[in-house]
Q: What sequence folds into this?
C-alpha cells in the first residue's frame, strides 16, 4: 500500500508515481495568481526547504503532458500542509496537501503550461546528480568493507584472504570503475551542451550506478557479517541510502523502459 493511501484526505495523486503525467493537482487562475488544490506524495526535504517546486495542472487538455505549469511555492504559504512520511531513512520525505493555497503570478517558474517540457529538460542533470551521489556512496561502502576485510581475522587469517571475498571485491571494484567512467561520460555530454536532451544516456547512468551502489552496499554488509548490520558501523546506513536510489528519480524499471524506447522498442 503506498504511504498516501492511509492518509485521511480526500484529494490524492494515487496514479502519479511512475506515471508522472497523470498528476491531478490543480492550479486555477485567479486575479493576480493561482489557487492550488490537491496532494503531492514523497516530497523530499519539503519540511526544511524555503520553497517547494510544484508541478500542477493549469489547463485541461486531451494530452496529459500538456497544460502543466511549475510553481515555486514558499514553504510557509497558507493552505499548504506538510506531513512527514516515516521511511527506512527516517524523516526525509513528506506528503503535501494543498487546500485553496494561493500562489502569486510571480511563482511561475518558466512558462505557464510548459511544465512538462521544463520537467523533461531537467532530467539529464537530475539523473546525473543521483548517479554521482550514489557513486560516492558505493565507493565509501567499498572502502569501508575492504578496510574491514583486511583487519578482521577468522580461522587465524584476515577474512579478505579468503577467495570467496577476494572475488567479490574484484567484481565490485570493476563495477565501480565502470560506474565512474559512465558518470564522467554523461557529465561530459551534459557539459558540452546543457540544453541537449539525453534520455538514453541519462537513464543508463541512473540505472547502472544506482544498481551498482545497491549491490556494493549489500555485498559490503554481507562481507562485514554482523558488524555490517549493526549501527556501530556506517554500512547499514549506506545500505538504506542506496536501496531507495533505485526507486526515486524514476525506478530502475522505468529507466529500462526509457532506454528500450530509445532503441525503437
Ligand atoms: C524517499 C523518497 C523520496 C522521494 N522524493 C521525491 C521528490 O522529492 N519529488 C518527487 O516528485 N518524487 C519523489 N519521490 C517519488 C519517487 O520518484 C517515486 O516513488 C517513484 O517514481 C516511483 O513511484 P511510486 O512510488 O508511486 O511507485 P509506482 O509507480 O507505483 O511503481 C511501483 C512498482 O511498479 C513498477 N512500475 C510502474 N510502472 C511500470 C511500468 N510501466 N513498467 C514496469 N514497471 C513499472 C515500478 O518500477 C515499481 O517497481 C520520492 C520517493 C521516495 C521513496
A:
Amino acid at each position: 500500500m503506498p504511504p498516501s493511501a492511509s492518509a485521511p484526505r480526500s484529494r490524492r495523486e494515487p496514479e502519479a508515481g511512475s506515471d508522472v503525467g497523470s498528476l491531478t493537482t490543480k492550479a486555477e487562475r485567479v486575479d493576480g495568481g493561482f489557487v492550488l488544490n490537491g496532494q503531492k506524495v514523497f516530497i523530499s526535504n519539503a519540511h526544511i526547504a524555503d520553497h517547494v517546486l510544484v508541478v500542477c495542472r493549469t489547463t485541461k487538455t486531451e494530452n496529459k503532458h500538456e497544460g502543466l505549469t511549475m510553481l515555486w511555492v514558499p514553504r510557509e504559504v497558507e493552505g499548504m500542509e506538510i506531513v512527514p512520511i516515516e521511511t527506512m531513512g527516517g524523516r526525509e520525505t513528506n506528503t503535501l496537501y494543498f487546500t485553496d493555497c494561493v500562489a502569486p503570478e510571480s511563482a511561475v517558474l518558466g512558462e505557464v503550461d510548459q511544465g512538462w517540457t521544463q520537467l523533461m529538460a531537467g532530467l539529464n542533470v537530475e539523473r546525473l546528480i543521483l548517479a554521482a551521489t550514489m557513486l560516492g556512496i558505493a565507493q565509501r561502502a567499498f572502502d569501508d568493507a575492504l578496510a574491514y576485510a583486511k583487519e578482521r581475522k577468522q580461522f587465524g587469517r584476515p577474512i579478505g584472504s579468503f577467495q570467496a571475498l577476494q572475488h567479490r571485491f574484484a567484481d565490485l571494484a570493476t563495477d565501480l570503475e565502470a560506474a565512474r567512467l559512465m558518470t564522467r561520460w554523461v557529465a561530459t555530454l551534459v557539459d558540452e551542451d546543457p540544453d541537449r536532451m539525453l534520455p538514453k544516456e541519462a537513464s543508463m547512468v541512473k540505472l547502472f550506478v544506482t544498481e551498482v551502489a545497491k549491490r556494493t552496499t549489500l555485498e559490503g554488509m554481507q562481507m562485514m557479517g554482523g558488524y555490517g548490520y549493526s549501527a556501530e558501523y556506517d554500512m547499514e546506513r549506506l545500505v538504506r541510502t542506496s536501496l531507495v536510489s533505485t526507486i526515486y528519480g524514476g525506478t530502475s524499471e522505468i529507466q529500462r523502459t526509457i532506454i528500450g524506447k530509445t532503441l525503437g522498442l
